[in-house]
Inverse folding.
């Protein structure tokens, strides 16, 4: 897989170890003919250590051999999230610190959530591209401000805070992009 094609959440092999990509920054060249650099912030799947990888866009990384299984949320406690495989009903646990940036998108009954299984252990989650969440708290829009495209913060049912347009009201269901955390549309 080319470095320029790697997305957040992809699991690749780096130095013989599987790592999950958690963040990407692109550094454009300042000189003519120089290569664009891709800087990846990753976490080693086995040891949980953070790894920084810098590559040119044409460099190659192999995708790790993982099994992806459809799962559903059973429950969470103070330290772990418990998931159940939809096919064979096997249960997996995942530390909340490993999925802290994804917890705000996960609800009971979320369809399309997949667990990444490596050596019979759940090492990460893949979420669908967008999820539907209800607004738990949102300030009312100010009358007369509809001419401008201003936004306001809205707290979703999971505690996630999303910037939404002023016309959105409390209690509405919204589509939220799980990759960027942006408001997409009403559901």
């Amino acid at each position: 897989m080319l470095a320029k094609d790697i997305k957040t959440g992809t699991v690749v092999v780096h130095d013989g170890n599987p790592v999950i990509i958690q963040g990407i920054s692109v550094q454009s060249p300042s000189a003519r003919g120089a290569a664009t650099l891709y800087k990846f912030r990753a976490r080693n799947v086995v040891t949980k250590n953070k790894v920084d990888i810098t590559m040119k866009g044409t460099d190659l990384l192999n995708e790790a051999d993982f099994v992806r299984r459809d799962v559903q949320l059973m429950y969470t406690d103070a330290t772990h999230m418990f998931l159940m495989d939809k096919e064979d009903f096997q249960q997996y646990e995942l530390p909340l610190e490993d999925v802290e940036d994804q917890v705000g998108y996960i609800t009971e009954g979320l369809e399309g959530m997949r667990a990444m299984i490596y050596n019979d252990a759940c090492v990460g989650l893949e979420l669908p591209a967008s999820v539907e969440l209800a607004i738990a708290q949102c300030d009312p829009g100010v009358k007369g401000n509809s001419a401008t495209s201003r936004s306001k913060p809205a707290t979703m049912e999971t505690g996630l805070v999303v910037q939404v347009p002023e016309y959105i009201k409390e209690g509405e269901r919204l589509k939220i992009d799980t990759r960027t955390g942006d408001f997409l549309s009403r559901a």
Observations:
- Residues 38 and 62 are 16 Å apart (CA to CA).
- The chain has three domains: 3-63, 67-126, 130-186.
